[in-house]
Amino acid sequence: MDDLLQTISMVDVLTINDAEARQLSGEHSLVKASRKILAMGPKYLIIKKGEHGALLFGEDKIFSAPALPLADVFDPTGAGDTFAGGFIGYLAKVGSINFNNMKNAIIYGSALASFCVEKFGTEKIKNLTADEVAARVQEFVSLSQFVV
Q: Is 81 a catalytic residue?
């Protein structure tokens, strides 16, 4: 545990799932868990909630990213790795880390992961076009955009 805590103290972004966040923090509430984990050193914390999306914590802000409701999920294998690749790829493209870029990176990662689960292995994502990704990102925007 000491080695884990030392490593966490040196990272900028920690991505874990909800069960790991609860175990690491000893808190059931993910908001309380995030406070404890951020106090360990990371600047940003992403808590993945599987088919229920993800939460981003950092800069005293919270962002809740939806998961795209899919009619058919063929194989979830590799979705987490695909999320990570899309997330990191977006941050590499924009070249800076801030809360807004982290929010967008989560949506891009989620969009790519949503393609991944539609087929077996890399079948769906190996021939994706930029237009298909942009359209899928727009679906995420439509899911959470509203007017008061």
A: yes
Residues of the chain with CATH 3.40.1620.20: 1-65
* Cα dihedral 129→89→77→20 (10° resolution): -150
Q: Which residues pair with 55 in a beta bridge?
A: 47, 64
CATH 3.40.1620.20 fits 1-65, yes or no: yes
Give, for all 148 residues of the chain, the pLDDT tens digit.
Answer: 999 999 999 999 999 999 999 999 999 999 999 999 999 999 999 999 988 899 999 999 999 998 888 878 888 888 888 999 999 999 999 999 999 999 999 999 999 999 988 888 788 888 899 999 999 999 999 988 887 8
> Contact 48/17 with Cβ under 8 angstroms?
yes
Sequence-ordered list of residues with C-beta below 8 angstroms from that of 137, at least 6 positions apart, any chain: 107, 108, 111
Q: CB of 48 within 8 A of CB of 83?
A: yes
pTM for this entry: 0.89
Looking at 2, 3, 72, 81, which residue is catalytic? 81
Rg (CA), the chain: 16
